[in-house]
Amino acid sequence: MAKPVVIVVGADKGGVGKTTVSRTLLDYFSANNVQTRAFDTESPRGTLKRFHPDITEIVDMTTTADQMKIFDTLNSGPAVTVIDVRAGLLSPALASLRDIGFLDAARSGQITFAVFHILGPSIASLDEIAETAGFMGGAKYFLVKNFINDTQFFQWDQATYNSYFHRIKDATDLTIPKLNEMAYEQVEVSSVPFLKFVANKGINDDAANYSFVLRGYVRHWLANVWSEYDRIKLTDLVGAKSAKGEK
Q1: Which domain covers residue 8, as residue numbers?
Q2: What global pTM score does this model have?
Q3: How many domains does the chain have?
Q4: Looking at the record's lineage, which domain of life comes first (predicted)?
Q5: DSSP state of 153
Q6: pLDDT in tens, 179-217
C-alpha cells in the first residue's frame, strides 16, 4: 500500500491567498491523475469546498471528532490529503498534530508530510517561520511567496528573509505569480476550479461561456504556478509521475 501523503496549507495571518494555493494544488494533482481529497477548515461555511465540492469536506480541526475524520482514514482514502487550514490556526494545528503523534509518524517515515506556509509581506509573517520551525522535523517545508493579490514584499530585504529562511533545515521557497485581477474575479464569480475555467466548463462539466481573454490569462498563470510545482518535484513527493501535457 502506498504511503499516505498529507499536505497542510496554512498561515497564521489571513488575506495571504492560502485557499488560492490549495486550489492550484488540487488542480495540479487532478491534471497529473493523482487521487486527492481535501479538508476545508473554514468551518462551517468553507471556501475551498465552493470550488472543489466533490472532493472537499468541511471540518473543524480543533475538535477531536473531526481530527479522527481526517487522520483515522489516511490509509483507506485517496493517497493524497490536502488540508486547507483556517487563517490563524497554522501553529495550533501543527501543535495538535504533534499531540496526536502524527509528527512522530511522519518523522519515522510512516507518512509523507508537507507544509505549504503562505507568507504575507510583513515582518510579522516572517516571525511565523520561527514559530513553525519547531514542528518541521520529518516534514517537507515550503515557504510560499504569493503574489496573487499583487502583494509587494516591500518590508523584506533579502538578508532579513535569508536569516529566517535558513532557520529551517531543507526548507524550499517557491513563488506564486500575480494573476490578472479581472481573470481572478471571473473565476471567483464562476465558482469553478481554475482548470475548468480554462477549459470553458461549468462545475458539472457543462459548456460555459467565459471570456477567451480571461481564460488565456488564467491558462498562462496556471502554467507558471505548475512549473513551480514541477521544479520542487511535487509529483515525486506524492509518489506519482508528472503528466506532461497541455496546461
Answers
A1: 3-177+225-236
A2: 0.89
A3: 1
A4: Eukaryota
A5: -
A6: 999 999 999 999 999 999 999 999 899 999 999 999 999
